[in-house]
Amino acid sequence: MGSTSIVDLKIGAELRSAPRPMTRERMRRYVDAQPTVAIDDGRIHTQPPTIHDDDAYAKKQGLPGIIADGMVSTNWIQGLLFDVFGRALARKGRLRTKYIAPIYEDQIVICVAKVTAKARTETGETAYQFDVWCEDDTGKKLTVGEALVYAPAA
Amino acid sequence: MAIGGYVCDLEVGDRIGPVEYTMSAFVVREYSHANELHHDFLQGIDDPLAPPTLIHLDKLRLYRHGCPKGTGPSARIHYEYDATVHGEVRVGDKLSVSGVVSERYERRGREYVVMEMELRRATDNALLIVYRDTSILAYAQKSEKK
Asked: Which residues share a beta bridge with B90?
C-alpha cells in the first residue's frame, strides 16, 4: 500500500541501534532511578544493595555477578522506536519484552526492531507490527518481544 | 489475602491500590536520563510527557503500598514487560494506579507472579496504560536452595 505517514518502512525493514556495553554504571543508574522516582524530591537517592549493582549480593542470590535490570533493555528498545516515531509512541501502541538471558557487566547490547506487518487504520495512521529484540555481539538473543506502533499521517 | 506483608507472599486475587500521585517533570527527566532516552519531548520543557515504561515503577509503587514489609528473603527478577498504551501521560497529570495479582505459578523450580495493572488519569478516569508484569520471586531454583 502507499504511505502518507511520517514514517515509511517496508515489511522486513530493520531498525538497529549502535552497540552499547552494559556497563556497571548503566546498571546502577536504573537502580538509583527507582528510589529517586519514588521519593520525587528533586534529589538523587540510592537504595540497599541489589543484584544489579552489588556483586556480593548478586552471588548470594545464586548469580555469577551483577546483571542488568531487564527494564534497561526494554527502555533501549523503546528509545530505538522513539528515535523513529517520536512522541506518537507514547500516545498509542504496545510493547512487550521478555528477558530470556541475563545481561552481564560489559556485555554488548544491540537493539533491533524488524517490521513484520503494516496496515492503514481507519483514522489514517499506519500501524506497524515489529519483532523486537536485544542481541549481543555474537548474535545471541538476550531479550525478545514485539511492538505495535501507530505512525500518524503526515 | 496477603496484603500488608511481603511481596513474596502475594496471592492470586490480591488487589493493591488505587494509589494516586502526580507525574512530575523531575521524575520524567531522571527516569529518561537513566535510560538514555534523550528526546526533547521527554527531557525538554515544552509539554513533556512520560515514557510508557515508567509504568514499571508504578508496580514498585504498588508493592510499597501493599507490601510494606518489603520483598522477602530473595531478590525478585523481572521476566516480562507487556504494556498497552491508550493515551499520553503528561507531566502534571494527576494519576491513579491499581493492580491485581492474576497468576502465581511454578515453572522449572522457580515461582512466577503476574500482576495486571491499570494507570488512569485521576481527573476523568481515562484509561492511559494497561500493564502486565511477570516476575520471578527468586533466581535460585528451589532444588538449589539450602
From this structure: B49
Model ipTM? 0.94
pLDDT tens for B41-85 read 999 998 999 999 999 999 999 999 999 888 887 888 999 999 999
The count of structural domains within chain A is: 1
Contact B39 A82 (CB under 8 A): yes
For residue A140, give its domain range.
Answer: 2-22+68-151
Identify the CATH number of the domain in which residue A16 sits: 3.10.129.10
Q: Rounded to the nearest 5°, which phi and psi values hold at A14?
A: -120, 135
- CB within 8 Å: B138 and A82: no
Q: If one looks up domain B7-144 in CATH, what number appears?
A: 3.10.129.10
The answer to whether the Cβ–Cβ distance between B81 and A86 falls below 8 Å is: no
Closest residue of A to B136, CA-based? A99
Cell of A23: 556497563
Contact list, B139 vs chain A (CB under 8 Å): 51, 61-63
Flag whether A112 is in a domain: yes
CA distance linking residue B129 with residue B108, whole number of Å: 31
